[in-house]
Amino acid sequence: MSDGKPPRHVVLVGFMGTGKSTVSRRLAELLACGTCDVDAEIVKREGEEIAAIFAGRGEREFRAAETEALRAVLGAEDALVVATGGGAVLSPINRELMLRRGFVVALTADPEQVIARVSQDPDRPLLQGDVRRRVYQLLEDRKGVYDFAHLTIDTTSLSVDEVVERIAQAISRFRTSQHSI
User: Fold this and answer.
1) Which residues are known binding-site members?
2) Residue 4, in any domain of the structure
3) What residues bind Mg(2+), as annotated (predicted)?
4) pLDDT winner (highest mean) among 54-58, 133-137, 141-145, 163-167
């Protein structure tokens, strides 16, 4: 962190279907802080659903709205657990914002587990058509983009509580190391 202080927020990144929204709510309960889903913030700010933004304005406009929403959320004074959309990490600006203002946790999962989790969700505009092919293609396209995170957890065979506990332990270690510098 550029100011030498521990980060205010915990930012969850990862591909769709890795558990960001579910984990964020449970982690916020444990940490006794607020939570914010960046996709929900975009919908609130833009006045339309994610799929409608993609369809009507395109991915580029959606990504611009995503950066503005992320900037606003991470500018909050009170600590938050922030669940980002799966593609939020595609922007170098977004990655920099996350690292500067949060402890970043990347959630991963086996591709077949992701497919099982997202295949019945009609609100995934990037998965129109052959879900299996799209998931594998997007995972290949995004290989390495989550590597900037402070912590990576594979959620494939973990319960939500196990994921939350691992994050809480890592945050504690991170904050301790930040204070000792």
Assistant:
1) 17-22, 39, 63, 86, 124, 142
2) no
3) 21
4) 163-167
Q: What are 83-115's pLDDT values in tens digits?
A: 998 889 999 999 999 999 999 999 999 999 998
Spatial separation of the C-alpha atoms in residues 30 and 172, rounded to whole Å: 13
Whether residue 2 is contained in a domain is answered as no
Domain around 61 = 9-179
- Residue 157's SS3 state is coil
Residue 1 in any domain: the answer is no
Q: Detail the residues annotated as belonging to a binding site for ATP.
A: 17-22, 124
- Binding-site residues from annotation for substrate: 39, 63, 86, 142
Feature table: binding site for Mg(2+): 21
Please report, for the domain that includes residue 24, its CATH number: 3.40.50.300
Q: Work out how many domains the chain is built from and give that number.
A: 1
